[in-house]
Amino acid sequence: MKRLAFVLLAAVVVFMPACDDDNPTNPTGVLPLRFTADLRASNEVNPSVTNAESAATGSMTLTIEVTRDSSNNITTINSSTFVVNLANFPANTALTAAHIHPGAAGVNGAPLINLNLAAGEVTLGANGSGSFTKSPQVPITVEQAQNLANAPETFYFNVHTPSNPSGAARGQLVRTQ
User: Fold this and answer.
1) pLDDT reading at 73 higher than 80
2) In 3D, which of 66, 50, 60 has the Cα closest to residue 82?
3) Exposed, middle or buried, 14 (CB in 10 Å: 0-12/13-18/19+)?
4) What radius of gyration, in Å, describes the C-alpha atoms of the chain?
5) What residue ranges in the chain does DSSP mark as E strands?
6) Of 154, 79, 95, whose CA–CA distance to 129 is shortest?
7) CA end-to-end span of the chain, whole Å?
8) Among the CATH numbers 2.60.40, 3.40.1000, 1.10.3470, 2.60.120, which is that of 27-175?
9) What is the pLDDT of residues 16-65, one digit of tens each?
10) Do residues 39 and 159 make contact, with C-beta atoms less than 8 angstroms apart?
């Protein structure tokens, strides 16, 4: 019995450092960053949405697979995936663009991360609803990902339509992972 206890103790001593997640010499590795945005036409400003798209809603989830160094800094973007769900638009609405912009709630900013929607790529259904996914790699730089991770509330995502070329539905980013 003493021999078994000694063998178990030796195994714990040998293998325990390999399981030490707090070891600063081991890189963190590949981990996801995840953001969401609750999209609403009422969140658009300058100009606000006052036409048939004023009831537009939706959601966006962005997952960025990143590699981090031992200091937890992002070193590489491995992939990015946007999943966008939209509802309450007029029938057969075509999207003209979708972006992440810098800007707190109520403040507009120039597009920062562009999903590069092609003309006619996303047209919502006859019920004014639909979804799309852009993956695996929408161009996002290490610096952009780090900025999103550090202060997601200072960025927003929105979709654009012919009726609202400045933006039809918008939501601030929230980091969920």
Assistant:
1) yes
2) 60
3) exposed
4) 22
5) 29-40, 57-68, 74-87, 97-102, 113-114, 130-134, 155-160, 169-172, 174-175
6) 95
7) 46
8) 2.60.40
9) 444 444 444 434 567 899 999 999 999 999 999 999 999 999 999 999 99
10) yes
Return the pLDDT at 1: 53
How many Cα atoms occupy the beta-carbon half-sphere of 141 within 13 Å? 5
Q: What's the gap between Cα 56 and its chain centre?
A: 20
Would you say the pTM of this structure is higher than 0.85?
no
Place of tokens 């945005």: 37
Lowest-confidence range among 20-29, 82-91, 157-166?
20-29
Q: Sketch the domain layout of the chain as residue ranges.
A: 27-175
Local structure of residue 94 (DSSP, 8 states): B
Query: What is the share, in percent, of the chain residues with pLDDT greater than 90?
Result: 77
Helices (H), 19-169: 142-150
Output the six-digit token pair for 23. 């070891």
> What are the CA-CA distances from residue 112 to residues 22, 117, 124, 176 (Å)?
35, 14, 24, 21
Mean pLDDT for the chain overall: 88
Task: Classify 40 as helix, strand or coil.
Answer: strand
